[in-house]
Every structure is written in C-alpha cells, then in structure tokens.
Amino acid sequence: MTKKSGNSCVEIFEELSMAFGVTGFEDDIHAIVKKRLGDICDFEFDRLNSIICRHKNARPAGKKPVVGIFTHIDEVGFMVRGITPNGFIKFITLGGWTMQTLPSHSVVIRNTDGGYVRGIIGMKPPHMMADDERSRAPKIESLYIDIGASSYDEVIGKYKIDLGCPAVPLSDFGELNGSGLYFGKAFDNRAGVCAMTLIMRMTQKLNERIDVVGIGSSLEESGLRGARTSAVAVRPDVAIVIDTPPADDTPNNETAYPAQGKIGCGPQIRLYDPTMIANHRLVDFVRKTAADKKIKAQCAVRSSGGTDAGSVHLANSGVPTIVLGIPTRYIHSHTGVLNIADIEGAANLSVEMIRKLTPEKIASF
User: How far apart are CA 359 and CA 64, in angstroms?
Assistant: First the structure.
C-alpha cells in the first residue's frame, strides 16, 4: 500500500488512510505509528493488539498524572465467509455498514500468503429485479465479491483466498479540487490516529507535571473492545478520545436546528451520546480552553452512535473523559471527506488543554 516518508499532516494522514487495517487485523497500522513516533516514543501492546505510545523521557508509571489520548486504529471492512462452486466469494461486514453503499464498489482482499487480491462487490442487476426489489436495500446474503475466478478451486489454489480472509475498501486519496477537503477511505478513525501522532510530538517536552500517553486501540468497530483493555493498562487520570463523527452539514442532514458537525469549523466537543455523558467540569475546561486560545470548536449532543469513550470512562474507578470529533462526511463507506484543518484543530486543542493541566486541576474533574 502507499508509502510516505514526509512528516506533514497530509502525508501522515495519507499513509494511514491507505493502509490495510480492518477491525481485528490492525498490525500494519502499528508499523506506521512506530515509524512515525519511534524516535520519541517507546511502545507496548495490550493483549487485544492495541498499541500504547509512551514518551521516552517519561517517568515510570504512577509517578505523574496520565493523560490518555485514545484513537482507534481499525477500520470497517469485510471477511470471507464462503466460496461458491463457480468462484464467487460470499462475505460478512466487519463494523457498521449500510447495504446501499456496497454494490459495485472495489475491495482488496488479503489472502493467506499476505498478498492482495482485487475484487468487485456484485449483486443482481436491476433488469432482473422485481419492481419491489429495486426500491429496497439489498441484503448481505444477496451480495458477493467477484475476483474473476471461475471455480472454488481457483479461489483457493490460485488466489490463496480462504474463509476468514479480511478485506477493505479500495479507494483513492486526494484533495477535492483544491478545496482543502480530502477524500479517501478509513478516515474513521485514521484522522484521529494522525491527530494523536501530532499530539505526541507536540507534547514531548511540554508539561513535566503530566505524562501524555497515546493509544491506538484495536477493535473499536467491533464493540469498543480494545479501548476497554488498553484503558486498564494505561490507567489514565484524564482521557481525550479523538474520533470522526458524521458531519451533518450536507443537504440530507438538514434539521430544524443548526448543524453541530460542520467540516472546517473545528473539532466537535461531544457532550452526550448513548455510551457516555461527558464530565461537565471537564467540558467547561475544554470550552474555556478553546475560547481562550481562539481555537475553532463546536459542541454536539448526539442521540445515536458512540466512541471508545464508552469503554474508557468506565475503566478502573472511572476516568473523566472528553471526545473531540473530527467531522467527516460519508463515514462507514468506501470514501469519506473531511477538512485537514480539523485534524490539526483537534491536535492543537488537545495540546492547549495539556498545557493548562496540573495534578490539582485533574483532581477537580
């Protein structure tokens, strides 16, 4: 997949976006994080494959309060669940997909040899559908991946694809007509991972009273699982979770109240979702920090969805936790769109919060 050596936000983000890392198969993202932070961080892993990044100059655990920067490194994708006699591949989704987004899109399957095989998601053409079928979303059972094979034996023998092989969308990465908006796959949550790498660099020598630990959690798209175990391992005193909420500034999301997730308007401070009610004292601190430093930000109350915060804030005896969202259009599809400035805004707001934190302030949350 794409290899980038530069250190700009866009270059880091592109490398992360283009990498293969479906939920449960995150190892390639480990390698990128280690490459990007290896000169300033040491790394460890929990037993669910989350990566934990600690500054090389940090004191031993327990000597200073810990601020955990939680981002999930997995992406939504697919897994092979069956192979037909004539060489088509049946699959399941990994993470939350809507079936309307799948037909006719390209995917990449990682085979048992570690190679990559391209495929197209197929379905019955409209010419062969009954009238009522055309107006309904297809069911997963009716979809398949076409890799050009003609038999079961060819899929297994030539292409080395078997049950359990993972797959991800095949998408390009680039800037949308010079707008500062970028398109690509896996923006949920490689945008957050990009922000975490920026934060770890900017806080290397920032606050000697606080340890900043970066976490790339596994299996978020499979139920917030990696964050549950990594939070126990890290034992944060405060947590900043960075994720990519769906932007609501598009025509089909118009509501009676102003949009709460406009791209280009800064990180979204999440006050509520069904998995967590944000600590109100921490919320006040974040809002005041954004206002004092003139960092664009927007607040949101979400009636659906969730993030790693749902696991993190329940860890140990409880963790004051805030979610900073990088608004992203068309998440959980083959191609998302976001403003690169919102990644930098989430990183800058996090760093300014860390600058102001003291052990006494943390104890007050």
Answer: 8
The two tokens of residue 336 are 């998302």
Residue 163's CATH number: 2.40.30.40
Q: How many domains does the chain have?
A: 2
Last residue of a domain, one of 169, 200, 219: 169
Residue 175 lies in a domain: no
In a domain, 225, yes or no: yes
Strand, coil or helix: 55: strand
pLDDT in tens, the chain (365 residues): 444 457 899 999 999 999 999 999 999 999 999 999 999 999 999 999 999 999 997 766 667 899 999 999 999 999 999 999 999 999 999 999 999 999 999 999 999 999 999 999 998 777 777 777 777 888 999 999 999 999 999 999 999 999 999 999 999 999 999 999 999 999 999 999 999 999 999 999 876 789 999 999 999 999 889 999 999 999 999 999 999 999 999 887 766 578 899 999 999 999 999 999 999 999 999 999 999 999 999 999 998 889 999 999 999 999 999 999 999 999 999 999 999 999 999 999 999 999 999 999 999 99
Q: Is 175 a catalytic residue?
A: no
- What DSSP string runs through 107-151? EEEE-TTS-EEEEEEE---GGGS-HHHHTSPPPGGG-EEE-S--S
Do 122 and 262 share a domain, yes or no? no
199 lies in the same domain as 156:
no
Q: What is the CATH number of the domain that holds 339?
A: 3.40.630.10
Beta carbons within 10 angstroms of residue 216's beta carbon: 33
> 220, 221, 254, 344: which is the annotated catalytic residue?
220
Whether 235 and 119 share a structural domain: no
Query: Residue 137 belongs to what domain range?
Result: 77-169
Report the alpha-carbon angle 288-290-295, nearest 5. Answer: 160
pTM for this entry:
0.94
